[in-house]
Design a protein that fits this description.
Length: about 400
């Protein structure tokens, strides 16, 4: 099975789009997309410096445009699965057929501008925590009032929150962990981005999404989304929700992905996969320049849907209906069969407990929240089902 992946913010490099402009029609395409995004994508991808392309408002549409531009030169009819990291999920949604490319570019422009505006409200930041015990790392973040904004697998968790909290984390890292402060505008994928989520939701409400034409993974919980409107809701909620790339990689392994093409600016996601899936490593092509297109096409030909049948993904996730503290049903363990409508727990709120029910039948594959864990509305609580 072949997966095409779209990278997120932080993967960009000055001038990375320059060789792509030699392809027929590329410059005209980027001028059209620039008008939709409200930024000069050609300048940003060719002559802009590193500081300019770190600007969230500019970087996000640039990354989506780069991925979609390169994907136009691949035989996507043989691609079984798409996924993207953070803003890269907009590119993945377009490749899956949920959104037209123009809609993905427009949303990336809105998302970038609104997240940049949210960053300016109060001083916040992010830092990568490398290594250490996961539970201890999460406990340390909680102690400093920080959020686990990205869980990228391979011993990497990105913390986000107030600059004072980040300073405290740098000064007092978890045992056997290294903390690297990131050069970003603010605390992405946390409640600090709430104003951006509201603004993006207002624009997304006018979209008529299609059903995915191929398997599409969600950053929210690594599950497969097969309903267009649900995917758009997740894209909007993603602005304030953690990126669970670790769960996306787990699903790649669960589904038996044997080949991966990472779209430009490629390399970051390939590195995470190599570290996380070392025991069952798929063949990977990092599509950095047009010179890599023959290798990517060959990989697709050998691992794509024409070469082997794709399984039908049936992952479902149960989410929190309200803010509060989650209490799973006593005695309910992973592996047990669930019926539609079965109560799997409660969220204890200030107004009393709210039932959490299974909206689909199937095995309880995995708990995504533990007993007495504080949860937000829409936060994943449990994973139901598998694949066949």
């Amino acid at each position: 099975m072949l997966a095409v992946l779209s990278p997120g913010q932080g993967s960009q490099k000055p001038g990375f789009l320059t060789p792509w402009l030699d392809l027929t029609g590329a410059e005209a395409r980027l001028r059209w997309w620039s008008a939709l995004a409200g930024v000069d994508l050609i300048h940003l991808g060719t002559s802009a410096g590193a500081e300019e392309i770190q600007d969230t408002a500019r970087t996000q549409p640039l990354l989506v445009a780069a991925a979609l531009l390169a994907a136009e030169h691949l035989p996507l009819h043989d691609v079984t699965l798409t996924a993207g990291h953070s803003v890269g999920e907009l590119g993945a949604a377009a490749l899956a057929g949920v959104l037209p490319a123009e809609t993905a570019i427009t949303l990336a422009g809105v998302r970038g501008r609104e997240m940049a505006a949210a960053c300016a409200i109060e001083p916040t930041g992010m830092a990568a925590v490398l290594g250490g015990d996961t539970d201890e790392v999460l406990a340390t973040l909680d102690r400093h009032g920080l959020h686990a904004a990205n869980r990228n697998g391979a011993g990497q968790i990105v913390a986000a929150g107030s600059t004072t909290g980040i300073d405290a984390l740098v000064a007092e890292p978890p045992t056997k962990a290294r903390v690297v402060r990131l050069k970003v505008a603010g605390a992405f994928h946390t409640p600090y981005m709430a104003p951006a989520e509201v603004a993006l939701a207002g624009v997304a409400a006018g979209i008529t999404p299609a059903r995915p034409a191929r398997i599409l993974l969600s950053n929210l919980d690594g599950t497969v989304v097969d309903h267009g409107p649900e995917l758009v809701q997740r894209l909007v909620h993603q602005v304030t929700s953690p990126v669970r790339w670790d769960l996306c990689m787990r699903t790649l392994a669960d589904l038996g992905v044997t080949g991966v093409v990472e779209l430009p600016p490629a390399g970051t996601l390939a590195g995470l996969i190599k570290r996380e899936l070392a025991g069952s490593l798929p063949e990977i092509v990092t599509l950095k320049t047009p010179d890599d297109l023959p290798a990517a096409r060959d990989l697709i030909a050998r691992h794509g849907s024409a070469a082997r049948p794709a399984p039908t993904a049936q992952f479902r996730v149960v989410t929190a209906p309200a803010p509060g503290v989650f209490q799973p049903t006593q005695g309910l363990t992973e592996g047990q069969a669930l019926k539609v409508g079965q109560v799997i727990g409660h969220v204890v709120t200030g107004h009393g407990p709210v039932e959490v029910t299974a909206h689909d039948g199937g095995p309880l594959t995995e708990w995504l929240a533990h007993h007495d864990a504080p949860v937000a509305p829409g936060q994943p609580l449990a994973r139901i089902g598998g694949h066949s």
